[in-house]
Each structure stands twice: as structure tokens, then as C-alpha cells.
Amino acid sequence: MSMTEDRVHPDEGSEFDSLDAAVQSALTSAGEISRSLLGKGDTGGIVNKVKNEHTQQVCTVAASMRIDCHAAPPR
Length: 75
Known about the structure:
The protein is α+β, with helices and mostly antiparallel strands. 28% of the residues lie in helices and 32% in strands. The protein contains one helix and four strands; from the N terminus they run ββαββ. It has a four-stranded antiparallel β-sheet, covered by helices on one side. The longest helix is centred in the middle third of the chain and has 21 residues, at 19-39. It is elongated, with a radius of gyration of 16 Å. It starts with a strand and ends in a 12-residue tail after the last strand. The mean pLDDT is 80.
């Protein structure tokens, strides 16, 4: 299994021994990348694709963020 990150390195990937390991890494990576991008003011989404040894997509991990600011109630 391999995992690629669309926004960061679309043509690079990591190799894993199992689907579970690839999905776990995709989840962790999506969270780390999201935190990094949020710190830069980017609230766009992250998509990590898990593919098998034949480059067929077998799982997609997507993460997105939204920031809603609300005015504080008057005192």
C-alpha cells in the first residue's frame, strides 16, 4: 500500500505493509498538514489517497476546516 498527499507532494508517496498502516498514516498526516496550513491562515482541505501496488486507489482520507467567528455578547 502507498499513500500520497494531493496538496503537498502529489507525486510522492510512502510504502506500507498493510492497508491499516497506510490508513493510519494518512489520518495522522492529514491532521499534521491541516495544523500546519491553519497556522498559515489556509483553511482549505487535505486529501490523502491510499493506493495499492497496482496504483489503484483503495481509500481516501479527507480533512477540512472551517473557522466561524462570532461576536461576543454585549455585557
